[in-house]
Write a structure and sequence with these properties.
Helix content: 40-55%
Mean pLDDT: 84
Low-confidence stretches: none
Order of helices and strands: HEEHEHEHEHHHEHHEEHHHHEEHHH
Structural class: alpha/beta
Largest sheet: 6 strands, mixed
Distance between the termini: 125 Å
Number of helices: 16
Radius of gyration: 27 Å
Amino acid sequence: FIKRYPNYQRRYSLHRKMPVQCSAKCGKRAQLKRPKTGDALCKDCFYFAFETEIHYTIVKAKLFNRGDYVAIGASGGKDSTVLAYIMKTLNNRYDYGLKLVLLSIDEGITGYRDDSLETVKRNRDQYEIPLKILSYEDLYGWTMDKIVAQVGLKNNCTFCGVFRRQALDRGAMQLGVNKIVTGHNADDIAETVIMNILRGDIARLQRCTAITTGSDSEGVISRCKPFKYTYEKEIVMYAYFKQLDYFSTECIYSPNAYRGYARSYIKEVEKIRPSAIIDIIHSGENLSITDKVKSRLPTQGTCKECGYISSQDVCKACVMLAGLNKGLPQLGIGKSSKHKKPLQQLLQEKAAKSAEQSEENLAQEEKITKENSPDEIMQRPA
């Protein structure tokens, strides 16, 4: 065949290398293929599609009201950097009327968080958004380096996740904001659904796909996820083509995280079914729970130790902190029933110590009052 048609191979090769036109019919050459839709787009059309879809998500879910003071959870990574850029861009373009601030948490991970916070500081200057940084050291008296030294690499992400969620809320309260936005993307939410299914955690499973969690009526600052339907691959592509300044190094303690196994599973499923991520999210959204099961779920209340929102008498952060301070780091790992008895002992010890300290303070105050009384002063030698 090739001998009979010698020019075929050359013509066929040229045909295969012909540039693909943008699917949006803008007349430009396509420079990328969208993972979400499979469309071949030029950079400008990709930017427009990416930003417009996030704007549509914000508007449809009514995430913000004019005048809202919004804290952007900033870690310096791709998700939070793109989120800060997008929030600034859409706020100006569509006149949301929002006041923005960056909120960062320093977990105390040497060689990782200290470097990523430098990126956040550069983002602060680039986007002209004020920045607030809180540290685990200031809030809890512990850093992740110290925690890992005590608990090892197996359950360290559990400690970090619990402390970080509470730290974000504490920082938001200090700033006086009424909403927090985080860079959780579609991949993150799909992974969370799988993790909760594997753990049989019905309480978290029914709320993990919500685009907004918490409300003023619950006494909690609302958290929003504008990237709920945005693929991680597209966030990376957007940051790359926009040449945004972000920190790309993975946390040194995360390779053993449970989430990593859920992520690997979803990537394998995606090879067979490209729409797997969105399908998992929609499955979580359409999950219905019977009234009988709902009646068995824990009710939301407040922690009697710190006042933070909790479904138990004592929140997870206080349980873990008590365990760390007493040399029992595994106290807060696993189901609450496992650590109920030792926790009660620790709380009783803490209450007894507080009572003893109160008595000492009272005795000291009485002594000072007595020394400064008029009768005592008159009896002193001149």
